[in-house]
Specification:
Layout lengths: L4 E3 L2 H4 L35 E4 L31 E2 L9 E2 L2 E6 L5 E6 L3 E2 L5 E2 L1 H9 L8 E8 L2 E6 L7 H6 L6 H4 L20 E6 L3 E6 L12 E5 L4 H9 L5 E3 L6 H4 L4 E5 L4 E6 L14 H10 L2 H7 L36 H10 L3 E2 L5 E3 L2 E2 L1 E7 L3 H16 L3 E7 L1 H10 L4 E5 L9 H8 L22 H11 L4 H18 L2 E6 L3 E5 L3 E2 L18 H8 L1 E2 L2
Parallel strand pairs: 2-13, 2-14, 20-21, 20-22
Antiparallel strand pairs: 1-5, 3-4, 5-6, 6-10, 7-8, 9-10, 11-12, 12-13, 14-24, 15-24, 16-22, 16-23, 17-18, 18-19, 25-26
Helix pairs in contact: 7-9, 8-10, 12-13, 13-14
Length: 563
């Protein structure tokens, strides 16, 4: 799909109009069943929509959109919005949020954006093109290739780059959170130090209450399309999938995204429905680049290649994920959606059966030899690795155990363990780890550019000890990949782009900074008795996972309490 010129279709602008109750403020506290909302005279929703989006307890209250890995889930979409929504489940044109339309020049250097008129921030201040310019020139967001950003009038922004941005449009338009200039400009260079407890955004919800066990949002009275019909959303903190499943079965939760091996008892009475869209690769992430501070045997590509062959993916899919997963691939694309971008057919599927003999051949060729314990060693150091996953993530925990067992048969010792969510993110973010179970997010559009740019380019990582300014947590750095991704970004020619992606795929399949395991079972469960308007297979207007940035807010804006 070409994104050079985009004008929102009339039908798309009506995305949330059928699910709104007017422009009056919602009550910040839960409303009793059967009560009447005094502002509108209409029956009020009987209770809040209760969500588990993955947060564990105690909840750390932070809505800073710069804290990508620590900010609470409602930050991204429900409170802060990008200009447009790109639906990863459908190859449709993007939907306008803060933005109305955009057009990229013939040479790909100038992006002209029209902002919807008469919008306000949640504090009532006007939202104009000046805010958009401020957002794109903010130090966190500013592209290295941005030459200038200018508001030519109150609703028009002109972004000029020194390199073509054809392939970058979904990232620029759909992954950059709009900031109110009057709030963030006075903060200056302290923007990353802020724990943002009272966010001001443009999205459909505002924060109403927080605690270490949950937080609540209510309808934004200044939202451009009016207060959402579901006027309160409560996000619960839990410490395990099992707790969430139990609360879902007993009616204490309405919307979750998690792995449930046997969903039949959950959906049996018709109150809860489920959907499983297999999108995101579950991987073993390795800290790989010695020059950037990574330490351990996993920095040797031969070790990662051997581990890749030692894994029994079919057993993991069946035993850890109950057969609900899809097949992973070393090209890291979503198949069959991205079929056109894979040149080498051997990269369309990872090995499904363990091949310990082939794994051992790689290690022997790399100079390893078995010690008296049957573990390969080199230079007197046994091939022993640490692998961890978040406590309570039962699918990941079981997968890690199976990986450890399979690796042992190939002479690779893997000690697996579980850690709290807080203990998980700090070492991953700072590069203080060897191996971790990890999930990559698939691209928003049928083009793998976002995955390659975010997870594999040197510009999206940093040395260990600091959090990367992107999502390249493996600290992967490869000049061939960097050049090929840059080439893909600078063209609107599919043939050139395909050739560039072929270079990327060859390198990442060899280097394996992220070892593919399965295409994750992305199960969403939602209450269809008390709330209507959820995505269906016939109307996949957004991904129904509650932790999905932007998509979850689009779903919320479409929901209504059942009559």
């Amino acid at each position: 799909m070409s994104y050079r010129k985009f004008i929102v279709p009339i039908a798309a602008t009506a995305l949330a109009l059928t699910s709104l109750v007017g422009c009056s403020p919602a009550s910040p506290a839960p409303t009793e069943p059967g009560a009447t909302a005094p502002e509108t005279g209409q029956p009020a929703p009987a209770r809040p929509l209760r969500v588990w989006a993955g947060n564990s307890t105690p909840i750390s209250v932070d809505f800073n959109p710069f804290h990508v890995d620590n900010a609470l889930h409602a930050t991204f979409g429900a409170i802060y919005e990008p200009l447009f929504f790109f639906n990863e489940l459908k190859a449709n044109p993007p939907t306008g949020l803060v933005g109305e339309s955009f057009e990229l020049s013939e040479d790909g250097l100038v992006l002209t954006v029209k902002v919807k008129a008469n919008q306000k921030w949640s504090d009532g201040e006007p939202l104009t093109a000046d805010d958009v310019v401020f957002t794109y020139t903010h130090p966190y967001n500013k592209s290295d290739h941005l030459v200038s950003a200018e508001a030519t009038d109150a609703t028009t922004v002109v972004l000029t780059y020194d390199e073509p941005q054809f392939t970058s449009v979904p990232l620029l338009m759909g992954n950059t959170w709009m900031l109110p200039k009057h709030i963030w400009e006075p903060i200056g260079d302290k923007w990353n130090d802020q724990v943002n407890e009272n966010p001001v955004g443009s999205g459909p919800y505002v924060v109403s209450a927080t605690s270490d066990a949950s937080y609540s949002t209510v309808g934004n009275p200044n939202f451009r399309d009016g207060v959402p019909a579901v006027s309160e959303v409560q996000y619960i903190g839990l410490d395990s999938n099992q707790s969430s499943e139990d609360m879902l079965k007993t009616g204490q939760l309405d919307w979750v995204g998690q792995f449930i091996a046997n969903p039949d008892p959950v959906v049996a009475d018709g109150v809860i429905a489920t959907m499983n869209n297999q999108l995101d690769p579950t991987v073993v992430i390795a800290c790989v680049t010695v020059e950037l501070g990574c330490k351990g045997p996993q920095t040797d590509p031969a070790v990662r290649q051997a581990l890749n062959l030692a894994i029994d993916r079919s057993a993991i899919a069946e035993k850890a994920f109950a057969g609900l997963t899809g097949l992973s691939n070393p090209a890291m694309v979503l198949l069959p959606r991205d079929e056109q971008w894979v040149t080498d057919a051997t990269l369309k599927e990872s090995p499904q059966q363990a091949d310990a003999a082939a794994a051992e051949q790689i290690l022997v060729a790399a100079g390893y030899a078995k010690n008296d314990k049957g573990i390969y060693a080199k230079d007197g150091k046994a091939l022993s690795l640490d692998l961890f996953s978040p406590d309570g993530w039962t699918d990941y925990n079981d997968a890690a155990k199976l990986i450890s067992e399979a690796a042992g048969k190939a002479g690779i010792e893997i000690k697996y363990r579980t850690v709290s969510e807080a203990q998980y993110w700090d070492p991953v973010g700072q590069g203080d780890f060897q191996l971790a179970m990890f999930g990559l997010t698939q691209s928003q559009v049928p083009d793998p550019y976002q995955v390659y740019y975010e997870y594999y380019t040197t510009g999206r990582t940093t040395a260990t000890g600091d959090w990367p300014n992107g999502q390249n947590y493996s600290r992967y750095s490869n000049k061939v990949v960097d050049a090929a991704v840059k080439k893909a970004a600078g063209t609107n020619d599919d043939a050139i782009k395909k050739a560039a992606y072929a270079e990327v795929q060859t390198e990442i399949a060899k280097d394996l900074p992220y070892i593919p395991v399965v295409l994750n079972a992305s199960q969403a469960f939602f209450n269809v008795r008390d709330f209507t308007g959820w995505p269906t297979q016939d109307n996949l207007y957004a991904n129904p996972l509650p932790y999905r940035a932007v998509a979850s807010a689009v779903v919320l804006a479409n929901l209504e309490p059942a009559q």
